[in-house]
Amino acid sequence: xxxxxxxxxxxxxxxxxxxxxxxxxxxxxxxxxxxxxxxxxxxxxxxxxxxxxxxxxxxxxxxxxxxxxxxxxxxxxxxxxxxxxxxxxxxxxxxxxxxxxxxxxxxxxxxxxxxxxxxxxxxxxxxxxxxxxxxxxxxxxxxxxxxxxxxxxxxxxxxxxxxxxxxxxxxxxxxxxxxxxxxxxxxxxxxxxxxxxxxxxxxxxxxxxxxxxxxxxxxxxxxxxxxxxxx
Length: 231
What we know:
- By secondary structure, the protein is an alpha/beta fold.
- The protein has helices at residues 8-26, 34-41, 45-53, 67-78, 93-104, 137-144, 155-167, 194-202, 208-230; strands at 31-32, 59-60, 64-66, 84-89, 109-116, 125-126, 129-130, 132-133, 148-151, 172-175, 188-191.
């Protein structure tokens, strides 16, 4: 396991390196330099070398990194050398999509159960899994040794579900509910708010000049309104 003093930003970059290395190994690319990794990942070569150096010396000066070797090392660092059992809470559209993706496309994760409180969704089949009632959550966490959970339910229900899974041993939560979850020390939450991601992306969809023009136009309208009010 990595040292607890290593920053979260380093840990978040490791899966990006792994995804690139997965692709390179499939293409039978044997070696890659930190500069080439930089081009693929968007991070600087210096940052990549620094990130990897936290865990050991994996490259050769002048030659770069052996892709298969580095891939195996990163897999072990993250803890993906054996499949991680996880559960999904929420069998709506998002929960269904994430379950199906992880069952068919993610070689490092095994979704062992999906839960929901909606009677209309219970017993629905997602790939080969049947949606189970929420009251089965503690039993499955215990029997399957679950430490990782995906939460894909509305905000009003997310904290209650979080309290339940944490009480029974879950240590890591990927939260898709638009709410900040309260968890005890030692439990890690990553928030994935798709609405915020889309809204922030929209910023880049219009030219800077257009945004400035809209802001100035709005400011002029505000000033005109204030002037009219004073009169």
